[in-house]
Amino acid sequence: MARTWKTLAGMSTALVVLAGCSFDSASPDATAKGGSKLVVADLWAPDSGYALETDDAFTLTRAGCLETLVAVDKDNQPQPALATEWKQTAPKSWTFTIRETTFQNGTALTAKVVADDLNRLLKATAPPRSFAPGVIAAVTAVDDRTLRIDTPEEDLFLPLRVSVPNTGILAPEAFSGTATNPVGTCTGPFKITSIGTGQSLSLAANDAYWGGDVALDGAEIRYAESGATRATQLRAGEVSVAANLPVTTLATLKGDNNITLQQVALPRTTGLYLNTRKAPFDKVEARRAIQRALGLDAIVKAVYEGTATAAAGPFTPDEPWTPAGLRPVQGDAAAAKAAMAEAGIDPGSLGFELIAYSDRPEFADLAQVIQAQLAEAGITVKIRTGDYASVEDDLMSGDFQATLLSRNHLIDLPEPISVLRSDETCKGSFNLAGYCNPKVDALVKEAGSTADPAERHVLYGQIATQLAADVAFVPLVHESLTMGVADSVQGLPTDPLERTLLTKDTKLS
Q1: Where is the signal peptide (predicted)?
Q2: Greatest distance between any 2 Cα atoms in the chain
């Protein structure tokens, strides 16, 4: 199964925190123009031949190469990119005005080129959920500068759909047979000059960038899946920026004054999902008893070394749709025993097998802490490990009792409607817990047809409140992302969507 950016089936990489050291070999490399080159250590190397329906699209947007019709700002609001404006011209139709610019190889960007790229995406074997035939009816070039996208049903989120990296636009020359070649075929501030067998990308500034002057003359992105390797590269001064380091490296990287820690809260929640299709977890009282036995502060400290925050629901505290007053349930054994006694539940009846897939390294420790905390309340937990591929069939078929899951609620769109539909509605395609409440279904449907963002945010808050009341899942922590950045690096974005790394404003002092 193809991975989803930082994830398998929507699960993320480990929480990352890093610090650094002084720079010798990582000092800026002089270029022919007399400028400097930034060296970055990042996680996922492109591994799907740069097919845009895969996570390779994210590697290209992070490299400052691939661009989409629409960008999003820090508030996840749509902003012009390769489209200068857009409007809903009919309930099921949107038009986009295409920017007058060229690709890095000189080919003109036109509405036909955009239509060809997006139609190619729709015909992919596994198109992204945010831009698939089920949500897109047709993509048509009206004229050189006008693109029309039709949808099967009215879709208020269409501009956000074409902000997802998979909908990035490459020049026609990028596509030859089944291969995709991003060298010279992007529109972004950086152009790829060479590809190091999947382990690195060499980049040069795009001197004709439509967005203005590019501060850096060049960059190199080195990929290493091992967090320890990226930590070593940073510590040795081989890179000036290191991203996505596991929390386990924090102790060895702390305390260096030459590195600034850039931390951003991710729209990601790790939770304990109890299978509501099967007894005893078909009863909310049983799910609530489990929740009352878990000490979230202890989990944050023991597993995440204080870099996560205790979770109250699917949304992080600083998101505009998070309901005011919803607080994490800070349980303990005594509270759980009292709750079970009141509900007439025998703690022994709540024993279960917990899946903790090994693709998330911290899940091993998290499962053991949960096991120990529930044991204090008289509840026995057996831990099942294995990689995600080995447990996926059981999760998707509902043949399990409980699982840990880390879920990014903005993974499909920079607004939670898509994940709410898939995860929390009765017939949702990724509703692992089997949770079903017609009231939530109705609220999700209403949110999907509410044009006013403020009104929609209120509905999201009502959904979160109902999920908490029903213990649809047991929220554990919200994760954060931290990059180590040398003091000489400026203009590096902190992007909670993890789509952007190098921009035209990134520079070395």
Answers
A1: 1-19
A2: 76
> Checking DSSP bridges between strand 179-180 and strand 175-176, what pairing results, if any?
antiparallel
pTM of the predicted protein model: 0.86
One-character DSSP codes across 311-375:
-SSSS-TTSTTSPTT-------HHHHHHHHHHHT--GGGG-EEEE--TTSTHHHHHHHHHHHHHH
| 246 phi and psi angles, rounded to 5 deg | -70, 155
**Residue 181: how many CB atoms within 10 A of its CB?**
16
What pLDDT does 35 receive? 53
Return all residues near 372 (Cβ < 8 A) that are at least 6 apart: none
pLDDT value for 282? 97
Range of the domain at 95: 45-182
Dist CA 238 CA 232 (whole Å): 8
pLDDT digits (tens, 9 = 90+) for 1-32: 333 333 333 333 332 332 333 223 333 343 33
Regarding whether 433 and 305 lie in a shared domain, the answer is yes
pLDDT attached to residue 34: 39
Neighbours of 7 (CB within 10 A): 20
Pairing of β 507-508 and β 241-242 = unpaired
What pLDDT does residue 8 have? 34
Q: State the CATH number of the domain containing residue 327.
A: 3.10.105.10
Low-confidence ranges of the chain (pLDDT < 70): 1-35, 250-251, 253
> Is 58 inside a domain boundary?
yes
Contacts of 172 (CB under 8 A, 6+ apart): 107, 113, 116
- Locate 23 and state its tokens: 């720079």
- b/e string for 325-363 if b means 16 or more Cβ within 10 A? ebebbebbbebbbebbeeeebebeebebebbbbebbebb
